[in-house]
Each structure stands twice: as structure tokens, then as C-alpha cells.
Amino acid sequence: MRVLIFNIFLIGTCCYAFLSGGAPERIVASLFPAASAISVVWGRQISNAFVRPAYGLLAIDMALLIALIAVALRAKRDWTMTVAAMQLIMVSVHLARILNPDTIRPVYTVMLALWRWPMVLLLAVGTYQHHYRLKRNGRHRFWSG
Q: In this structure, are residues 29 and 10 in contact, taking their beta carbons and an 8 Å threshold?
């Protein structure tokens, strides 16, 4: 049930970001569902996360981290750096599990799912802030530099 609720939350937030966000919001709104959809391919690994590290999910999370860092370094948005930091925590959880196989297995699984919620929420908040600045100022730069 929580997976269904999260997917509705993700799709709704990404649609909102596509309709009301700037370029950074739209990029992140395309990255999140893409990573989620690709993760379905390795979905078996989530159920096996109690047994061994989910290397396929680690690869997806690493690629997402690199893309989020690229957006965060260029975007004129504060929320993007926070989202990239949260993704770095997720990658660190994978690495901790690989380096220490005795890591409490349920904690590993929960940590993989936990950070996705606030990351999507930050996308919604960032989109709202962008939309509000546009209404107030009429224009807003997407990228720094």
C-alpha cells in the first residue's frame, strides 16, 4: 500500500513540476520517475536486500547521484543541493552494507526507501517556490553563472 501511495505522490509531484517548474525542476522531475522505473527491473533485489547488497540499485542510485549533483551545481536553487545530499546518503547506505555485511539488514532496506519521500517533497517545495517567485517577480533565472 505504501508503494502505491508513494507512486501517486511521485507522479503527482512530477506532473506539478513539469507544469509549474523551471528547467531544474523539470529535469529532476524526469530523473526521479526514470530511476524509479529502472529500479523495478532490479526489484527482486529489494526483497533480497536482507540477504545481500542490492548492486543494481546501487548503480541506479550512483547514476542518479551524478545527475543530481550536475543539476545542483548549475541550478540557481537551494533545494537541489539538499536533494543531492540526500541521494549521497542513499549511496552511502549501499556502500556501508557492502563494506560491513553485518549491517542490520532491515535498517539497510528501510534506509533505501526512507530518503525518497523527502526528496520528492523537496521537489514539490522547490517547484512551489519557483512558481511563487515567477508570480512575484515576473522572471527568475534557472541557472547560475
A: no
pLDDT tens digits, one per residue of 40-66: 877 655 555 556 777 888 899 999 999
138: left (phi over 0), alpha (psi -120 to 50) or beta: left
Q: How far apart are CA 56 and CA 86, in angstroms?
A: 19
C-alpha cell at 104: 542490520
Whole-prediction pTM value?
A: 0.89
- CA diameter of the chain: 54
* Contact residues for 34 (Cβ-Cβ < 8 A; gap 6+): none
126 with 142: CB under 8 angstroms? no
Does residue 121 contact residue 82 with C-beta atoms inside 8 Å? no
Answer yes or no: are the C-beta atoms of 32 and 61 closer than 8 Å: no
Residues 6+ apart with CB under 8 A from 4: none
Provide the residue type at 142 as one letter. Answer: F
Count CB neighbours of 116 within 10 A. Answer: 19
